[in-house]
Amino acid sequence: MPNMHSKAQHTPQxxxxxxxxxxxxxxxISFFVLPQGIVFDPQRRVQRRRNYxxxxxxxxxxxxxxxxxxxxxxxxxxSGPIFSPTGTA
Length: 89
Ligand SMILES: [Zn+2]
Known about the structure:
binds zinc ion
């Protein structure tokens, strides 16, 4: 079969947010983060900024921790102007 090779196109890669390993998109699960939590979008229907995670139990477990850090970072950014440096009022 001489045509076997034409199928081996360069597959786009994404990096897993948990283990930081670049993998083919097909090996990862795409999701996005809402204030309510993580929404998996395997069909990639929603046009949104997406993140990717491995399908391995280890990374899916680690996703919870990643989410908490992610929310913390977002919160810190969002609430930045509210907090004034202590003692300068
Ligand atoms: Zn991973």
